Amino acid sequence: MKRATLARGERTPLDERPDVLICGASFAGLALARELTGSGADVLIVDRYEIGERATSACAAPTPWLHAMGVQDSIRQEIPCMAFHTPHGSARFRLPWSWSSFEYRALCQQLFAQTDARFAIAKVEGRSGRTVVTDRGELTAPYIVDALGWRRVLATHYQPPEAPLSRGLEVHPHGASTDLDVWIDRSLVRYGYAWSVPADGEQRIGVGSYEPTHHVKEPTQDIAQRLDRDAVRYQGNWFPHKLRAATEDGVYFVGDSAGHCIPLSGEGIRPAFYFGIAAAREIRRALAGEQSPSSALATYHRFSARHRPAFTAALALQHAIPRLPPKTLTRLLSLTGRQRPCHALFGWYLTVADPKFANA
Ligand SMILES: Cc1cc2nc3c(=O)[nH]c(=O)nc-3n(C[C@H](O)[C@H](O)[C@H](O)COP(=O)(O)OP(=O)(O)OC[C@H]3O[C@@H](n4cnc5c(N)ncnc54)[C@H](O)[C@@H]3O)c2cc1C
Hints:
Elements: E1 20-23, H1 27-35, E2 43-47, E3 60-62, H2 63-68, E4 75-86, E5 89-102, H3 104-113, E6 118-121, E7 124-128, E8 131-134, E9 137-140, E10 143-146, E11 165-171, E12 180-183, E13 192-198, E14 203-209, H4 217-226, E15 235-240, E16 247-248, E17 251-253, H5 269-287, H6 293-305, H7 308-320, H8 326-336, H9 339-351
Parallel strand pairs: 1-2, 1-10, 2-6, 4-12, 10-17
Antiparallel strand pairs: 3-5, 4-5, 7-8, 8-9, 11-14, 11-15, 12-13, 13-14, 16-17
Helix pairs in contact: 1-5, 5-6
The structure holds flavin-adenine dinucleotide.
């Protein structure tokens, strides 16, 4: 693909003083900007790439969230069922809600179109107090948001492989299927899982390892081969599995930068929307003079911390499930796949970051 991003030498200096500076134009940053629309604030979003240029995920999210965010036109395929596979059998779950796979670029552009923010390409390199240092110059703002993903560039950096990060890699061959398939199979990956997400003529087939020192390229090629699909169009990244402080030194952290990616499932798009909206609401109230900037930070910090029990429970399951005897796991999956437990479990799971919140 041709890169739209300007080479370093072609970039012009950027010297801006917006009211709100959002670093990162992906799920978290764009959801936050969308929620600030109409606030009257001068909002500047910066990213090292053009909006939607580089997808970082399999791009599957709960369908109700995509509707709530007004990005349903980016949907490629609605997926009502999940199928879990172990070496000893399979269980099909008909969910109380559906997943949808979507087109990353379209979704990002549709989110941005709903904002009244400005956008500039710049690589964020660090921060000194209220000033963010980029490769195009320094940007100063009273409200600064780090929506830059797992690196958490504006505070103490995450360093894999020691940091609490999982690693994921996927390929995007042509192919068709109906379910969101998940394999929990030690012969593929010791602590993690493999997936196949159908996307209308494309399959996003990948492997995630909760253990960051374990490599995922061979397992990804292995699962593609088992499915008789070509291992083509690779994309991979790290993703966090532990919550971090949602504010630090006056900066808002949202999405992967705050560890807002649900352990076990590695689902990070929906929480990025959810916490992005939450942070924006506090900033908005502060901009309107309804609370002080420090009280906005504290309220958002507490909001994020309130979700710790759900994230801790998911992390405990992330630790336990790969260690269960495979036959026990197979039995558990077939019991959980029955309608009542399936609806109870996935109903609860959706409420961890409820789509109703988007329009609350
Ligand atoms: C292989 C894989 C598949 C996944 N599949 C799914 C899935 O199907 N569903 C799901 O819910 N989650 C999935 N996830 C997790 C999900 O991708 C993340 O949780 C989600 O992308 C987090 O969103 P974010 O906006 O916080 O960060 P990101 O999406 O990582 O966005 C960070 C943004 O910051 C920009 N940026 C980074 N550094 C700089 C810098 N120095 N200067 C300027 N800009 C910078 C990037 O260009 C990017 O636009 C997957 C993860 C992986 C690795």
